[in-house]
């Protein structure tokens, strides 16, 4: 897989985080990017109080349709706990593996709360 330029511009994080921190239910944002970090598409998926369903197949399909080189994911934890759950960790690994087989990088996964943001990449989880 060809390397993407580093780092992604700060606007990327701001764009994905917008509206997540204060939501009272789980909400996810998926950003699809070209190799120069131009945003190709942004999708939001609403969940419920303690979860959001993000089909890996749909994310992969969208990435292919948009011609994305990278995907970034952000979701909130309405309870304010910024730590990834075991389900978050398992899902992120499965998504990264699935996208990698298609030549697409899962560049980041953030957990957003009203007071903090946890980066899977910074924590060594991605």
From TrEMBL:
Keywords for this protein: Hydrolase, Metal-binding, Metalloprotease, Protease, Zinc
Domain of life: Bacteria
A single GO BP: proteolysis
Pfam families: RadC (PF04002)
GO molecular function annotations of the record: metal ion binding; metallopeptidase activity
Domain MPN intervals: 1-126
Keyword Hydrolase recorded: yes
Gene3D superfamilies: Cytidine Deaminase, domain 2
Protein name: DNA repair protein RadC
Species for this entry: Sphingomonas carotinifaciens
